[in-house]
């Protein structure tokens, strides 16, 4: 063996032994440790192209500290988060769309208050402050928002079709089937009874047996009209995004209900996010829903909205810093640049970058400028147990919209409401946090 190489290896081993000895002597002082910041875990609802765009933004959000992030996207967000919390392994940051769930987590001591900078971006009605343990704090901030009070329609259908829409309805959505129907009932109640009644109902302060709530259900049934068993079965089993288009990207792209339902329908009530399925169809237009829902004119300026809010679940200070940065202008500009044109998110502040396609611009103007009042999705305000019961009740009523069945369902929902936390429970979402003028 080469003697020079042998001496070199001997010196290397000696140096390594010396290094280990020094580490053992200095370990109590914190030396010889890996000082790189640990990777933060972000749990969120976006998968596919949406998830890739968010993750790309996250990877580009370099603050010069060497902080790294990993994104976990799932369609079973609540189930995944509950499992992680039960295993005492929560994500550092989770992005949720339910104010009811967020309120429960804050009340249970699972959430950490946000920084002052992030709290300043907690625009109502997406992120009202909560009073927990006698202190009023902000626990989440909206990252992405959506407008729900919209109707999508095919053009060229003629005046008769416009006067008497033939509504597309699909209620299937994996474990959360039924929510497209709850959106209908919420929107109808908002436009017929107004924001004050809507708020009382959403926060559990109004009985489900109230005539105004009952009227929203029967109005929905009247708008949809009489349906055959085949039509009802199709609506109960079809996904809310419709069936895949066999001519697009190997058949994996949904074509929306306007291109999926048989026989053909002319109008669809759906949130702003659905615009991505109609991005290449110049015949589809979007209108505010108020003109189709038999509401009162003085409530036409009220719109139902939804959002995806970021909250901190860990004690790592870097997680609070991340939420502060995610809600800022740099992250939003990056996010918009990484997303496909028809998937570019809406933000709550008119000064933030917004979609530039014609439909996106129209929706952004309503969200940030034109609306008189924005009211958060009522079922997402409710406690999770009541929200889930609402979903199931909608499916049962759609299958059998008889008066007696409706009375039975409303009685059951009211029993669930009465079992929920009382108004005085710490951390309960305040009534003032459900509806608000456009913020930012």
Automatic annotation (TrEMBL):
Source organism per UniProt: Streptomyces huasconensis
- The signal peptide annotation in the UniProt record is 1-31
Q: What name does UniProt use for this protein?
A: Extracellular solute-binding protein
Q: Does the keyword Lipid metabolism apply?
A: no
Keywords per UniProt: Signal
Q: Name one Pfam family in it.
A: SBP_bac_1
Instruction: Please indicate which superkingdom the organism of origin belongs to.
Output: Bacteria
Matching InterPro entries, A to Z?
SBP
- Where in this protein does the record put region Disordered? 419-440
